[in-house]
Design goal:
The structure is a single chain. It is built from 6 helices and 19 strands. It is α+β, with helices and mostly antiparallel strands and 304 residues long. The chain folds into 2 domains: 1-26 and 184-304, no CATH class; 29-183, no CATH class. A hairpin with a 2-residue loop joins strand 16 and strand 17 (272-277). The radius of gyration is 22 Å and the shape is flat. The two termini are 39 Å apart.
Length: 304
């Protein structure tokens, strides 16, 4: 797998050869969330993004006279065979954890793998191939599969779903935390490019203001790292959501975050994004712009 240092080495080369930048990018992989809370009341929701670490907190209350159960689901998109050159080489969100009242919830995990529009999950299991990690099967298990399936492993498509539930007694309140590492879309962009301007505008930023901030923090920078975080919410969370976003001095790729942009936040708190927003759809979006050279400060730009 390509390391952060290797990526930044490629980034420096890209500064000298803009065509190289096209190879230093990957699409994001959002983890979708769904809930069936029935008659329970969702009293508060909060989302925290700290680097790549996502924490989604929900406070539920049972205002009925009987015990009630809420069910929750998290699912990956359908993904292909994992690429050996990808930073996001594992798209299963295997580190997903849920805490209910501070205690780990039991997660049930189901995986499915498809080929030619057919579910081949049982076929793989019978051959001794883990459907949760079908990207590196050995030759011996592959020999147990029909030749067309075995010879086209790069065309297999998989998805993983996690589920859990919690039961609240009559009149009880429960705090649930969903924790996972986000898989953002990322890439290199020339600081004077229309593409960077377009992305900045999508997150309610002013391109000219952003360029001045980049130049003030990293004078003469020709290339920046851009990460896009999409955090899907369940429809029940389309209400006021408390938001906190922070970035480390160096991010997961070794770049240095300069700017964080988001639309609709109500307040600004130093180098962080913090406030309350009412999402208009079931996705929260954040754009992080980072320097690949020396930088002294981290600034924050808040959309209207």
């Amino acid at each position: 797998m390509r390391t952060g240092a290797g990526l930044l080495a490629g980034a420096m080369a890209a500064a000298a050869c803009p065509l190289a930048a096209g190879y230093e990018n990957e699409l994001g992989v959002p983890l979708s969330l769904a809930a069936d809370i029935g008659p329970l009341a969702l009293q508060r929701s909060a989302v925290r993004l700290d680097g790549r670490a996502v924490t989604i907190t929900n406070v539920l209350r049972n205002e009925s006279a009987a015990a009630q159960t809420a069910a929750f689901y998290a699912s990956t998109p359908i993904f292909g065979r994992l690429g050996i050159a990808e930073e996001h080489d594992d798209k299963r969100f295997a580190e997903l954890a849920v805490l209910v009242q501070g205690r780990p919830a039991r997660l049930r995990r189901a995986a499915a793998t498809y080929f030619d529009g057919r579910d081949i999950t049982r076929q793989l299991a019978h051959a001794g191939i883990d459907p949760l990690h079908p990207d590196q099967p050995t030759s011996r298990p592959l020999a147990r599969l029909p030749s067309r399936v075995a010879d086209n492993a790069e065309r297999w498509r998989s998805a993983v779903t996690y589920s859990w539930h919690t039961t609240l007694a009559a009149g009880a309140t429960s705090v649930q935390e969903i924790r996972y590492r986000a898989i953002p879309r990322f890439g290199l962009q020339m600081t004077a490019s229309p593409e960077l301007d377009r992305q900045v505008a999508q997150f309610c930023g002013d391109p000219a203001t952003v360029r001045r901030a980049i130049d003030a923090s990293d004078p003469g920078a020709e290339v920046v790292m851009v990460e896009r975080y999409d955090i899907p919410l369940d429809d029940s969370m389309l209400r006021d959501v408390d938001i906190t976003v922070s970035q480390p001095a160096r991010n997961w790729l070794g770049a240095r975050p300069l700017l964080t942009l988001a639309c609709g936040l109500a307040t600004q708190d130093g180098g962080k994004l913090a406030g309350t927003m009412a999402p208009v759809d079931a996705t929260l979006g954040f754009l992080v712009i980072s320097a690949i050279g020396p930088v002294e400060a981290h600034a924050t730009v808040v959309g209207d």
